[in-house]
Amino acid sequence: MKSLAQLGNELYSGSTSFPFVPRRKVWYSTAVGVIAVAVILLATVGLNPGIDFKGGTEVTVTGIESLSEAPASAVVAEQGLPASTSVTTMGTSSVRVQTIGLSPAQSEELSTALAQAYDVEAGNVSATTIGPTWSSDVTSKALRGLVLFFLLVGALIWAYFRTWKMAVAALLALCHDIIVTVGVYAATGFEVTPATIIGVLTILGYSLYDTVVVFDKIRENTVSWQAQTRSTYAELANLAVNQTFVRSLNTSVVGVLPVASLLVVGTFVLGAGTLRDIALTLFIGMIAGTLSSVLLATPLLVDLRRRERAVVEHTAKVTAARAQRLEEAGDDPEALAALTGAPVAAPLVPGHHLGAAAQPKRRKKRS
Q1: Domain that holds residue 169
Q2: Secondary structure of residue 16 in the 3-state scheme
């Protein structure tokens, strides 16, 4: 079995290649299917916005010796609060009740009842009411921040790579990440809180970084792509994805493992809270971001550029050159083996990052 380092060297040199770009229709179909499921979940189940987005009253009871949701649920039923009221445990000694906006008198009555139900002092119960104005302001600022992020990112990629098509491909991949994350939130019923928005912006930055690394390698591979007839633009782009694949895989594993630990701790140990909200967003987003950077961003870029006159003419030139080389080889088995065994795409600068074997050797000092 090949080691990861050996596989990385072979992917970089082009001797081994995964067909990320040639099989782009498979990735597109899968992505469309996942997005369709996410949209259906949003339309039917919908998101579960937290109190910061929908407004309401939150009452927290701390210092509980025997943690259980049952006493709070009984108080909620006695108070005649709506079915949308949620009761959740937080950590090892706190219970949180979130309900519709209550008047000061109703909030005081609920706090007193909860203190009696859990046999704690009145000072251990805190109540907070968030009005509709505050919640709508939080929602609008969250959406404004997301839109501003997309505009700045698109302009930055456009300026850095000198082409708007790379910016469009990267933003479409980011849209995929957002929709998948939102769809999972709708499926699981987790609350959407300000911590969720922070997590979304974080994973967008993570996914964007991975995409920019791949695009930078594409730019490096295609510096003089029209001056050669060995590989097409699509093949050189596929080579770039292969060359960065191991790096993307390692980065994702290193990033997802601690986030998964935080998610487990936040869900099963600490209960509802900021840690769980951020961890779930990061866990989903890191996986979706890695997949979109590898399977969607580069294929989208190739499709955006494949109708360009330079790309079409060069592809025809490469096809004609290959046919001519096969014709010149004739029935010579050695020549045919050399043609069929050679990588379809390889670094344009031979010996560049081909592993330890390709590096200069030190001469041994004479004794």
Answers
A1: 15-49+134-311
A2: coil
Q: Domain tally for the chain?
A: 2
Note whether 177 and 285 are within 8 A (CB).
yes
| DSSP H or E run through 310 | helix 309-329
Cα of 194 vs its chain's centroid, Å: 18
In angstroms, the CA 325 to CA 340 distance is 11
pLDDT tens per residue across span 9-35: 777 777 788 889 999 999 999 999 999
**In whole angstroms, what is the distance from residue 239 CA to residue 175 CA?**
25
**pLDDT average, residue stretch 57-83:** 84
- Say how far apart CA 248 and CA 294 lie, in whole Å: 8
What percent of the chain clears pLDDT 90, i.e. is strictly above it?
A: 17
State whether residue 275 is helix, strand or coil: helix
112 and 39 housed in the same domain: no
Task: Tell the residue number behind the tokens 């998948």, with chain if given.
Answer: 180
Give me the chain's average pLDDT, please: 80
Q: Is 18 helix (H, G, I), strand (E, B) or coil?
A: coil
Closest CA to 283 of 346, 196, 359: 196
Residue 311 or residue 326, greater confidence: 311
d(CA 5, CA 14) in angstroms, rounded, equals: 14
How far from 84 is each of 166, 170, 274, CA to CA, in Å? 45, 39, 21
Burial class (CB in 10 A: 0-12, 13-18, 19+), 292: buried
Residue 336 lies in a domain: no
Residue 345 belongs to a domain: no
Domain CATH for 61: 3.30.70.260
Identify whether 367 is part of a domain.
no
Q: Average pLDDT for residues 245-253, to the nearest whole number?
A: 85
Q: Are residues 238 and 21 in contact, defined by beta-carbon separation less than 8 angstroms?
A: yes
Task: Read off the amino acid at residue 58.
Answer: E
Give per-residue pLDDT as tens, 81-99: 887 788 877 767 788 888 8
Measured distance CA(364)–CA(367) in Å, rounded: 9
Mean pLDDT over 256-260 rounds to 83
